[in-house]
Each structure stands twice: as structure tokens, then as C-alpha cells.
Amino acid sequence: MKLGSVPGITSVSLRSVEQTTTELRKLLARLRENDPTLEAAAVQAAELAHEQSAGVLALVEHPGADPGILVGGIVPVDRAVTIENAAELRYYLADAGGPGLREVTQAETARGYPVVITERILLGGAQLQAVVLDRAGARAAVFTLHSPSGRGWLDLAAVAGRLVTSVDFTARVP
Question: Model's pTM, two decimal places?
Fold first, then answer.
């Protein structure tokens, strides 16, 4: 899978939890020094990315928003992907709900991949999850964007959305 380069998204390495945490902290300090909420989010995101063998961990920024953290990776799907599968996933997520569920939508990326998007508004900020389904294989790309403050959430989500729509399952990363 290949992702496009998107202004406002800066990836960090995933070599080790310590290195990931250090890089993410440096990026966040450039934007906001001594912010305990962002500090805690950086540590949690680094640990989560390594536990889940994420393929990408990045800082997402927009001039009108507080920074957010994006974690993404590929997961296996146990059957061929169709538009009907995307609709089933959308209905399942809407029914499963959970705290703060605001919206569950379905769309298509620029390359025609089905994508299911969930948005949650929580006490600890806002979260968007996008699941891009590969029609040609039994896999999906899952991205989770977390904004610890929620300030400028729509602007931040739009930046992350540009990355999600760039997913290309047919391209190989050199």
C-alpha cells in the first residue's frame, strides 16, 4: 500500500517505542510546549502503534486547530470486499455505537476504494476512524485520528481525509 504526501502530516519512525515517543514529543513541543494533555497522548499513541504493529504514526496539524495524532495500518479481512461489505460495516459500527458516537458515513476514495468513517466526540477530545477496504484483496487500511482537545476538529479531520483518500493498494512502496 502507498500513501500520498499531504501537507500538515508529519510521520515519525516506528523503530522502537522510545524513539517513536521522542520524535512525537519533539514535534508536539514545536507546536505546544509543556502541554500535559499532548504529552500523555504522544506516549499513549507510541505505545498503541507498537502494540498494534501500525504502519504509520504521524502528527497532523492545521493552522486553525490543535495538533492531532494519526495511527494507521493494514488489517486482514476474511472475505472479498464489496460495496455491500462496506455498507454492512457501516451499519455494524452505527449499531455498536459506544460513547460519543456522532456519525458513521460511507464514501469512496479518489481511487474508488470504499471507505467507512466514524466520528466520536469524547470528553478527551475527538476521534475519527476511517476504514479503507481493498476490493482486490482481503485487507483494509485502518486509520485513527485523535485530537486531545478537539479544537479545530473539522480542519484537522480534513487534513487526515486527504491522506485517507490517497490510499493506493496497487502501488508498492520502494
Answer: 0.86
